[in-house]
Amino acid sequence: MTPFREKTTVVTDQDLLLVFDETVTRAGVDRWVRHLESAGSPTRIYRLGASHVLPVSEPDGADAVAAAGPDLPVPTRRVPREGQAWLGRRELRPAGTEVSLGPATIGDGSVAVIAGPCAVEDPEQMTATAELVAAHGAVALRGGVFKPRTSPHAFQGLGFSGLELLIEARKRTGLPFVTEVVDPEHVKRLAEVVDGFQIGARNMQNFALLSAVGQSGLPVVLKRGFGCTIEETLAAGEYLLLEGNDQVMLCERGIRTFEPSARFTLDLTAVALWKQRTHLPVIVDPSHSGGRPELVEPLSLAAVAAGADALLIDVHVQPEQALCDGNQALRPEQFAGLMTRLAGAAAGLGRSLSGGN
Ligand code: PEP
Ligand code: MN
Which of 7, 92, 138, 190 has most Cβ atoms within 10 angstroms of its Cβ? Predict the structure, then answer.
């Protein structure tokens, strides 16, 4: 037998995860840590919202698990540790994670709509757009004040001063907002006012940014890089989860393919696979993927049919005046029509629009 063959059989990842849901106290989980330590199988505690996860190395830890006495709480679940993104695996939380974005809940089975302009531009634009999307049933606002633009000559966003307009829009409509963060140094300052963060496609693998946003504990929309795989996106989400923040939503926003007819190609396979593989809610952005208003409705309906929990939609009261991505924003009447047809589609699938009556 060659040493090489021997080695390949040894390198397997057979570790076990003990999952303790919120009914198990931290003191009970600590007793498990001490038990494993004294059995020669040290571990560490990972937090997943109010749950705790303990990896147990095989084969050494298996005996310790089998020998657990009645003083140790029974794990809610035992799951094999597989892959590079195991905290996000569906098996750890089969019912799925619900994200609380202000008063809105995403991931509870309903279809949530987050809508607003690509970029926050001025008070009139932000207020009018926010009131419009609120009137038609959006549960949260979007709007970038830091815009990662391909050209450095393009409008880069209003920066911190633009936050005032989002705060004012929230006050008027009662809707929470998400906004993009591009710099780890900005996270603390933004966290004082935002309801949720957005990490853009271009920053999906900015690991320092992921860790900083994870530490904020706030909800985050993590957009898939347009050159990144389904698994790489799950691994990026794992950086957020590793900080103990389970308020993470994955967003499919189109990938770059050979197809030039749309801005990007919406990958609905990612939606279906993520729904199977991870407990995190899944969002679809039909605006940035299609890049054209007339594609937003068909892509939205398809996303809901594929299982998306929420949609992230660009809306502008005057798209021709927009400083960013006006050529993909829905006009007011288009957004109103979309919401009506989304409600019908959701009902046909046994779901309903979030916040709808
Ligand atoms: C956006 O949503 O404003 C945006 C910049 O999208 P993406 O990061 O998906 O390109
Ligand atoms: Mn945009």
Answer: 138
